[in-house]
Predict the 3D structure of the following.
Amino acid sequence: MNKIKLGILGGGGDSLIGVLHRVASNMYDRYEITGGVFNPNYDENISFAKKIGVNTGRVYDDFDTFIEEETKIPIEDRIEVVSVLTPNFLHFPMAKKLLENGFHVICEKPLTTSYNEALELESLQKQHEAIFAVTYTYTGYPMVRHMKHMIAKGELGEIQKVDVQYYQGWINPVIHDPEVRKTVWRLDPKKAGISSCIGDIGTHAFQMTEYLTGMEVKSILSDLNMLYDDNSLDLDGTVLIRFSKTVKGVIRASQIATGEENGLTVAIYGKKGAFKWEQENPNILYHITDDKPKSIIKPGHAFVSDVANDGTKLPGGHPEGIFDAMGNIYKGVAKALRSENAFDGEYPNMNDGVRGMLFIEKVVESNKNGNVWVHLDNQ
Amino acid sequence: MNKIKLGILGGGGDSLIGVLHRVASNMYDRYEITGGVFNPNYDENISFAKKIGVNTGRVYDDFDTFIEEETKIPIEDRIEVVSVLTPNFLHFPMAKKLLENGFHVICEKPLTTSYNEALELESLQKQHEAIFAVTYTYTGYPMVRHMKHMIAKGELGEIQKVDVQYYQGWINPVIHDPEVRKTVWRLDPKKAGISSCIGDIGTHAFQMTEYLTGMEVKSILSDLNMLYDDNSLDLDGTVLIRFSKTVKGVIRASQIATGEENGLTVAIYGKKGAFKWEQENPNILYHITDDKPKSIIKPGHAFVSDVANDGTKLPGGHPEGIFDAMGNIYKGVAKALRSENAFDGEYPNMNDGVRGMLFIEKVVESNKNGNVWVHLDNQ
Amino acid sequence: MNKIKLGILGGGGDSLIGVLHRVASNMYDRYEITGGVFNPNYDENISFAKKIGVNTGRVYDDFDTFIEEETKIPIEDRIEVVSVLTPNFLHFPMAKKLLENGFHVICEKPLTTSYNEALELESLQKQHEAIFAVTYTYTGYPMVRHMKHMIAKGELGEIQKVDVQYYQGWINPVIHDPEVRKTVWRLDPKKAGISSCIGDIGTHAFQMTEYLTGMEVKSILSDLNMLYDDNSLDLDGTVLIRFSKTVKGVIRASQIATGEENGLTVAIYGKKGAFKWEQENPNILYHITDDKPKSIIKPGHAFVSDVANDGTKLPGGHPEGIFDAMGNIYKGVAKALRSENAFDGEYPNMNDGVRGMLFIEKVVESNKNGNVWVHLDNQ
Amino acid sequence: MNKIKLGILGGGGDSLIGVLHRVASNMYDRYEITGGVFNPNYDENISFAKKIGVNTGRVYDDFDTFIEEETKIPIEDRIEVVSVLTPNFLHFPMAKKLLENGFHVICEKPLTTSYNEALELESLQKQHEAIFAVTYTYTGYPMVRHMKHMIAKGELGEIQKVDVQYYQGWINPVIHDPEVRKTVWRLDPKKAGISSCIGDIGTHAFQMTEYLTGMEVKSILSDLNMLYDDNSLDLDGTVLIRFSKTVKGVIRASQIATGEENGLTVAIYGKKGAFKWEQENPNILYHITDDKPKSIIKPGHAFVSDVANDGTKLPGGHPEGIFDAMGNIYKGVAKALRSENAFDGEYPNMNDGVRGMLFIEKVVESNKNGNVWVHLDNQ
């Protein structure tokens, strides 16, 4: 099957989100990064493209040139889908123009800076029948997908309560000094829009709520905390939610939950049972009921739904992070090949391999001779 | 910086180890897969190369051709390092010939099928001054590297006890029926060598022991279990180990620990404290001492050593598996673009984005109006 | 020191709360159960007194007789403090009369059935200078006390957010059938008062909030769920709380959180750090901060505050439940002594002791002889 | 039913084991402490008896007097069973004389100081048909009993591997200084016998192994560590065990596992599944299999065996330690009644009760009025 031609806007330099999208697009051998505009500065743009191995012929000066030049290319060679990784305020104009010119879009969240812009994009998307993804990344975890699938199948019965939390503490160290907090872009309405905490992480909690239950929240009541009079954006908020008169829930989000890292947690209670999940331990899904022992569901097993196993590349017991472990070994080898400073033990070397073979032989020898001590001297 | 030219032997078709090495090599933008021999069958080899986007010009008929052709290429364009992902018995002949022809090598474990072969490779490697990695993958986890680093710095004081476990249960369903167990290649000495359990996973435990402590095991005493008379290879073993007369430990490995997935655990006790770590929860490192509360060390923080943070791509609280979550979203989009059957919710779509913007605006409105209920109707 | 003379009202028959108060009163050798009224039925009352080993001379017909007779006894021999374990609606009249007659009181929660009654009791207590405890049991856990103490000492800095949850699922199996839910006394306003969920467990969460922070909640906003029109009492509720304009929190309580057992959890975030605690794992207190590894505080260590260690009877690592473990062994022996049906292994017996001595001797022998196999045959 | 008359030898003063046995004997209202010898010193003995509320008429000068006087009492009034809580070397002579005089015995572990003494006691016990318990306390946990019961019922199928660990670190702070280690009684062969680590905790692990599996260990091979030449007793040991040629296991015990508290853990693997349990979290039992999600079994549920629920006094979700929580509240009240220094918040008081009632009323009011803010001012 021919690969999908992917364009990327933004994500250059040290961008973490850029790394995340590139590694992700590569994971199932289905995309090739065909071109894009990684940086506003053309030279940096080109040198970044070289660094990541993208053909510079389709790395463009700016977004307008991208549209102009790509649309000249015959449809079968043209970039099909574009990942928008630029600052939030650029999501709307870029996504809009991409849709108008027939591209499919993968857009980082938040989709836009206002609801009206979002509606405009939605209307364009329908008109152009485009594929449009908003990267609420946490929905990609196998156990989240299993949860959604099982809820849809009725495993929990009718839902009767939803509790979703997203607690972080990162703003605590910079919020209490008036001079410091002035400098935080997240707290500047011009850059962050009308909300800090809810806009950044509350939306994840909200999307997860609707994504998992398959139900729409009908009304909400919120209480936000700005903590200081000279700060106009929320740092913390509790939102009461109602799906109907008798199906309720609560979304709790905070950036001043001191010491919390990325504490997105989900608890969904139905008449027949409940699921509980925590983003910081994403391979574990708890299933509890009235009358059976709590069970711990993990990916990679036959008892897990296809939708989850389709997103699981390794057998049970291998946390997904094992890709990173192997990636770090490859990095260690790269440093050695390029004579860069490496940490001690950055990749397991020949001696590790040799000792391993010695170990196997001596273990078998000790056992064969009646469980006696044997020495492990390298020759 | 120009990328490292990587060749790959094996890892074609549905090979999981192939996926793992490809994703890993891509993670830090330092390698390009230049060529290789992915499958013994030439047609499959070529179609696999196309699938993963490798230039077929340097995909060869077989290993001998690979060596012959690559060595004709000028040194600056030649493949520099080759990943050997073939069945175990091929590791030795391939690695040997690669070293003899001036290639660097990344070799899957076990290094060879005997200690003597391993010694021969080691001698060749020294002679050719080659970089040679053996992919004991678990050493790549940031918390394993932090552990090694802190032990070397003396955080635990003198080591006085080491306990490493590697328990799996995968062989339990196939071991009890005489007809079934005959068919397991791991239990065939011709294919698996002199050991099953110790050779496959005991070596990981052993390597971890020496890797983390920086000490060499001097002698061992083992007790292996073959469970049935008609089975000649070990399924389970306990190995007493000694670093010196008073520094001892134990390595425990099993393939009949029913229900265990990939239970590699490490506990290292020194005079000043101990570290405990579990592969199935790899982002957590426990540090315990005589007189302070137990502490939980996680990657991505300033208090973690450089060697660990160098292998951590995201801020604290984001499990490494988030790459997979994003990868699954990209796969969902790919299915949509190719009109393949997709699961419901395989990527978050426009509506998720629109609802998110609505949510933010309504939350701010409810709060501003004195914490009252507001409706969340899409226009 | 002479023991405190304790009277008990209620708690007879199979009452669990009775067991809890009796075992608790005995734990530090400071009380003796001198008399009381355990059951409304006199014969049962007396036979229960005999069963638990209370002198029947001061077991009375009813509460009025209790007051009449005890007040005739010279003050130095009179019951000093009375535990009120009767149904909720009796708490007020009994506590009132006890206070009026000069007794100290230990009263189960809820204190009364209305706020006005509670105020009346408070006024009486002040007038009589009585000791009056309300048994919010969870405040007795050593780690809860440590938390309170450390917060008072400023360990967390100024508090900026409080999140307390009390989720149970017990009402789920009996709520969905209209005929069944009619029979649940907790849902009958005549027996349960104006609230089910908040009255029963929300109050625990509220008390914990004020107990731990040392601050008073100033205002609240609640959303309750009755689930069915023919049910008038709350089964679930979220309560927004404010200590001040910028110090906020949320209390969440539910009896329809299907599958939850007794999920009281606490998270208190201050400028300098946070504490997190869960009732179902009460020996663990998490302390998190901006810049240090998460630490796990457990009782019985020198680094724990005196107030916590004063309530810890055993060294670190022995969960408090070990009393129950030993209690079960004593019960096993009692069954044997009374020739009752016992479960196999209900107490460890002579053979266990004998085998233990054999094991020790053989272990030492194997080691002394150079780590060889020795047999473990009983003589 | 009349209570069992219990005598106690030892356990006076600040003895923790004394507290444990007294509280335990009281838990099910089946024993009364009738007399004993708590201390070698008569005055202390009597004053201790008064403190714990035991009739001093049957508190004796010494053990010989105890035997002499009790045996004069008519059989129906005589002490029936005696708990032996004295130093280890006294277990044998006391238990022996008790058996010879017709008493039943509850004896602390280790049973004796040598296997021969143990055999002598066993023979006496059989001759006198006495009830004799050795208090391996950990067998009293409900989840341990459930495990034993389910294994006996075949839940795990044939056992194929057993792994029991007992790691402590308490000796680490006192072992490395030659002057300090001389003073540790556990390391003095005259006081501790032939073994320190195995004798003290290895025996628990061994007993648990046989108790749970219902099988006898047939042979063992051990490796002990004394760490220093001037120390003759083991501080750490690994013991290979065999139930049969193909059913094996390992017992690991240590007192130099720095930072470990009381780390008794059990893993038992059978053909059909496995159980895993940890003493420091005793209410949790993990059940794992080849093909179902891991399940977490907790006490107090209908799905748990009778033998476990018979030893569980409270509903699911209440950790057994709740007795201690209530005990601490009673202690706080006792301090108040005796005008002793108390910690702040040592018992929840009238104000907690009053605030609770206010909270309930205001929550209901806020909800009724449409989820609005209401104030919580005490009148």
In short: Chain D touches chain C through 152 residues (CB under 8 Å). DSSP finds 13 helices and 14 strands in chain D.
